[in-house]
């Protein structure tokens, strides 16, 4: 087993804990923040355990758990709803342009297939995650919706034994037509080797014109002193719980790495651009300064590169 496989595997086995926390943040945003909402996840509450449902539903629990016990995470909460909004904006544009496949890497409790039934006839959704997480997800979808959406395909991947590209193919993914990938909340927990390995596997199984959106942590020297302190506290917190943050980038270093793997930059979205697009004059939400969003397309290799 390679180091990249080990790193990805250890992350995937813990995804159910992370997935429910992310879904809770989306539920809290819809319930407790004033409209207009950045991201309306109307099914998020259905994805929660009884404990996290109470956290999202009751103000006292939300304050005690979200603001006090997990207060070190508070700077990250805006990034969760902002990255979801940005990704789905780009996805809808891609679908309108004819993209017919959507692959969610580390899908967790994403609810796109439930919320956007209006797009069910236009796009097939492939959710990639650890089998244990998906078993829980299926139960919650059935309870909330009565059935699994017809356009949703689960792709169980245990990175200890499975290859992402092979499992996508088995699930019916068509490598001859472009796809849109989302890869949220993952890159900073992986080694550079694991990131490059995933990019290579996606490039090997994707048609030219495919696109990927993901978030990444910027290098500390690009942060203000205040944000660097908050970031270091968060890093220490997650490391103590067995999920160390391993990789960061500058926009230049990320662009260079992506280019070496055959990807062309569409855009990168720093916090100030996140604010301009989605927050305007709001003061109740502050973009997370150490997370940027990235959007790349997969271009055909030249003869020399091949």
From TrEMBL:
One GO molecular-function entry: methyltransferase activity
EC number of this enzyme: 2.1.1.-
Alphabetical list of SUPFAM superfamilies matching this protein: S-adenosyl-L-methionine-dependent methyltransferases
A biological-process GO annotation: methylation
Pfam families: LCM
NCBIfam families reported for this sequence: mthyl_TIGR00027 (TIGR00027)
Homology family: Belongs to the UPF0677 family.
Protein name (record): S-adenosyl-L-methionine-dependent methyltransferase
